[in-house]
Design goal:
globular
Length: 315
């Protein structure tokens, strides 16, 4: 059984740390595919210091950029030859037991298109600042959707996809800025077979000021992404399942959808306030309210709340 560790790379800050964690695995049958998205930083020199024959390095002739991250992931899929695939950030880390634990789980429970390794969150100093709540051994897609809608924290690197199935589906689910693309790619992968969850942490997500998640520059593409995901999610939940518990989970998820997506989009509207363009952003959002699926009243209320917050912080 062979794994692919796909690393779309752009930042050099923690890249060496990321690669070393991958090559510290206790399980040896894997390949590493690094795709440099035309970075202005010298990532190749960092990769060359390891000189491991299991690693291939590719540099895009021009960058996809932050808005088209998913297109970069899917372009890189053609370079992946493992049976199962993990896609991790250039600043994330794998724990040494990660692939060995996954290989054991897959041997014990074959036939799934999706597996999950538990996540730890680390800061810029590599210190653990949070750990993901444990999950049951198995979940179906309705359980995954229900817990996601309720605020379950997750990211792309903790999911392990069957490569053949992911490619047959056309790759990772597309949204601008890859916003919720990781969540929905996992949901689609679990649609038929569900997911097997591992209990021991195997992946470390780095919370850093350098990530797209922390950027205030892409609020409009992220709002568009939430609209795309909502449409697909409602389509996925259109048919009622046969199982009684699944019907309950589906009903609760549908009830929460309007508030979940409204809150998510208003969060992006708030971020404009931090970018130093308050009045311009407010005027732009008021003109775009129909496009983003929010009312003028909701946008004005959000800006008023943020303005009060800013005044309080001054005293």
């Amino acid at each position: 059984m062979k794994f692919t560790i796909l690393i779309p790379a752009y930042k050099a800050a923690f890249f060496d740390e990321c690669l070393k964690s991958v090559f510290s695995q206790t399980y040896a049958d894997f390949e590493v595919v690094v795709v440099d998205d035309a970075s202005p930083e010298d990532l190749k020199s960092v990769a060359d210091t390891l000189a491991d024959p299991r690693m291939t390095y590719h540099r895009n002739p021009s960058g996809y950029g932050a808005v088209e991250l998913v297109k970069n992931w899917n372009n890189a899929l053609a370079l992946c030859h493992g049976d199962y695939l993990m896609c991790i950030g250039d600043d994330d880390r794998l724990l040494p037991n990660c692939l060995e634990d996954l290989a054991r789980e897959i041997d014990l429970h074959p036939g799934f298109d999706l597996y999950h390794t538990r996540m730890e969150v680390i800061n810029e100093h590599g210190e653990i600042i949070d750990i993901q709540l444990d999950r049951p051994d198995f979940e179906n897609v309705y359980s995954m959707i229900y817990h996601w809608i309720r605020g379950r924290r997750q990211c792309l690197g903790e999911w392990v996809f069957r490569t053949e199935t992911l490619k047959a589906r056309g790759g990772f689910f597309y949204t601008p800025c890859a916003w919720a693309a990781d969540d929905f790619s996992a949901i689609l992968a679990a649609k038929d077979t569900g997911v097997r969850n591992l209990h021991r942490p195997g992946f470390q997500y780095r919370q850093s000021s350098l990530s797209v998640t922390k950027s205030y520059d892409y609020s409009m593409p992220k709002i568009k992404a939430w609209n795309i995901v909502r449409t697909e999610l409602e389509s996925l939940l259109a048919d009622e399942p046969a199982d009684e518990i699944d019907r309950i989970l589906r009903r609760f998820a549908i009830q929460r959808i309007p508030r979940f997506f409204r809150t998510a989009k208003l969060t992006e509207v708030k971020k404009d306030m931090y970018a130093g363009t308050d009045l311009k952003a407010l005027w732009r959002r008021l003109k775009q309210c129909k496009r983003v699926g929010l009312s003028r009243k909701q946008i004005l209320a959000t800006y008023a709340y943020r303005y009060i917050e800013s005044l309080r912080s001054m005293y």
